[in-house]
Amino acid sequence: MTFPHIKVVYPTAPLQPYTPMDGQLSNVWFDRKAISIEAKDKRKSLAEIYESVHELLNEEIQSGIPPERIIVGGFSMGGALALHAAYHLNTDLGGVFACSAFLNRDSIVYESLRNRTKPGTPLPELIMWHGGRDTLVPIEWGQETLEELRKLGITGELFPLKGTLHELKKRELLDLQEWILKKLPPTGTPSPKL
């Protein structure tokens, strides 16, 4: 996914012990107690990765990219981290996408949105895709996440992918590319109505 006027950054999750894999080392953004929407967030693990997210975002902002021209997103745990980045760490971003992702029911993201210091200010738009046959992260978790976020002022949409497991599909990537181009037209070009 390349664009002539957009810098794309693909960070890699750090290698760390992952509780759902019996503590085996894995490239994961944060640890969780279980892969379940009902599990409690491991907030200490999240706080540790927030530093890296802040560094990535601040590096781009300090290089002259306005926050509203930054989109964050990812697949699975990367999508969950993108939701944290856009709705807990920096609500001035231009948008967020999450593919086959969810937030735990007790997520600090919901808490942050309920306690916003500037209620009424626009929040980043959300777009989600989710496999209809995903057995690792059931589509119902993605749907519940979106519904909870909508109750807290998020504008967003989830596109179910019929017959898809916990995976990315070409159609979803093409749709994502189109969405990114609408959100981030070349500078000097007005953003089209979405």
Provide the succession of SSEs: EEHEHEHEHEH
* Helical content (DSSP H or I, runs of 4+): 25-40%
What amount of the residues lies in strands? Answer: 15-25%
Structural class: alpha/beta
Describe the structure.
The mean pLDDT is 93. By secondary structure, the chain is an alpha/beta fold. The two termini are 21 Å apart. The chain is built from five helices and six strands; from the N terminus they run ββαβαβαβαβα. It is globular, with a radius of gyration of 16 Å. Strands 3-4-5-6 form a four-stranded parallel beta sheet, with helices on both faces. Strands 1-2 form a two-stranded antiparallel sheet.
Write the layout of secondary structure elements.
Elements: E1 15-18, E2 24-27, H1 43-62, E3 71-75, H2 77-89, E4 95-99, H3 108-114, E5 125-131, H4 139-151, E6 156-161, H5 170-183
Parallel strand pairs: 3-4, 4-5, 5-6
Antiparallel strand pairs: 1-2
